[in-house]
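User: Please predict the structure of the protein below. I'd like the answer in structure-token form so I can feed it into my own downstream comparison script.

Assistant: Understood. Taking the following sequence of 101 residues as input:
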Amino acid sequence: MSLLDALRGADMLLIDGLHAWQFELDEQATGEQSQLSVECMDGRVRRVWQFSAAAVSAAVATDGAGGWRIRDAEGEHELVCLGAISASNDEDEEDEPEPAS
């Protein structure tokens, strides 16, 4: 699996330990064009990272689940792709009592 594949299924990212639920993936980008844009708040400071298509394709998986090492002009960053967890509000039909006859 590549980072691009992991990003396609991600709902949120961790970048350098910060939760980033705002990110954009441009699957049409190539070479040095910005393919991944990540934005989050670090306290009161807005932080933005831009990663080229070349950087996304060169990212290396880490030992952690969903973890990747990716580089930009500022250096190396740790990126973790997270999927959303959702629960159904519907009760299972098996849990409903049978109607009385």
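That's the full token string. The chain has a mean pLDDT of 86.
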